[in-house]
């Protein structure tokens, strides 16, 4: 999941005309909206839970209510994912996210067992070990950059471990990921600059080459890792081809790293800002599963996903024309009072939490069990060791739109100084 994917492949810069929401979807993809999306989600919902407005690629439809989003997910033949192909510099459709059923279902059947809860459980210990190693590396520092020193390396190191790749490859791995996911930030150029697309394409070629070499290595031996499982997976007697394996690995790199980093960043920013809620997390480590679900709901790291209509239709009373892009604002539905009791309240004791943070329907997040494990272990182990922390005073966090992530998150560790009046900390 990347900003381009979440937003549907558009460049996201520039006003494309006067849609229902003063300037359309482009106006929703800003740092200010990403920092505090709730008021904008509510404003959109007042205009109707489905409405037409200018998208990033022409006239579009925006859904912000649960019923409409469920309908989009229910009819993947009508609301297709296939047209996203190529938005990340890839030369073939990414598996499974750029396929519609029935191909998509065939691939999911093959890959799902590798990411099933029982299969993922064995990674709990290695994940906890990595969390502690990263915290150990802070040494005696009282100030860290949470994004650079924790939330970025953690999912990448976990992924290298899962795939059975050497940890020395971490810098390469991060460079390849950033070259695909945020090429404009890497180059310091506007998203629509021709060099940005060229850089993304060159990085894509490197990614194919990197995984090609790794897969060559698996011909001789099959260590007990995720790649070996994929190599040996079979459906109806058929194994994945080399190209299919590459198209899966490419997607893992773009879908499985930034989303977890973004979740950690937005969750920890919330907990840093709300010491009384943080005290609950510290006091009740066994409630961590509920904490993670509630933070996934209220923070919704992936703001939206999109589809393309394959025929003229109607959604929640709103006309949709063939070929138009349809945006599903997951974050808005997760905060909608019509569907979630006391939606605005953050409650770690909810017994029912049917949030859409992982999407829904056939494309519902393949890595949700792994993501949950990473988030639960990370938050639990962190708070056992570091119950007190705060955003460095005077910092304005720059949350990127699409996937709500931070490049930099200056954090002070330890209790606030006694004279600091902001310490209404109940811990
Ligand atoms: C908290 C972290 C995560 C969040 C919030 C998240 C969110 C999502 C969402 C919203 C979708 C649906 C996309 C759509 O409908 O177009 C999705 C799909 C997907 N996610 Fe995740 N994700 C997370 C972590 C992961 C991880 C760790 C992996 C590991 C590989 C992963 C792999 C995938 C894949 C492969 C798909 C495509 C599934 C398909 O098309 O059938 N995700 N994710």
Report on this structure.
With 427 residues, the chain is of the alpha+beta class. The protein has a single domain, classed as Cytochrome p450. It is 45% helix and 10% strand. It is built from 19 helices and twelve strands. It has helices spanning 3-7, 31-35, 38-46, 66-74, 103-111, 117-121, 124-136, 146-151, 153-163, 170-181, 183-187, 194-217, 226-232, 242-255, 258-273, 275-283, 288-299, 330-334, 368-385; strands at 50-55, 58-63, 79-80, 143-145, 234-235, 238-239, 305-309, 313-315, 318-320, 325-328, 389-391, 410-413. The strands form four sheets. A five-stranded mixed sheet has the order 1-2-10-7-3. It has a three-stranded antiparallel sheet with strand order 4-12-11. Helix 7 (124-136) crosses helix 19 (368-385), helix 10 packs antiparallel against helix 12 (194-217) and helix 15 (258-273) packs across helix 17. The longest helix is centred in the middle third of the chain and has 24 residues, at 194-217. It binds protoporphyrin IX containing FE. It comes from Frankia nepalensis. InterPro entries: Cyt_P450, Cyt_P450_B, Cyt_P450_CS, Cyt_P450_sf. Belongs to the cytochrome P450 family. Keywords: Heme, Iron, Metal-binding, Monooxygenase, Oxidoreductase. One of its GO terms (molecular function) is monooxygenase activity.
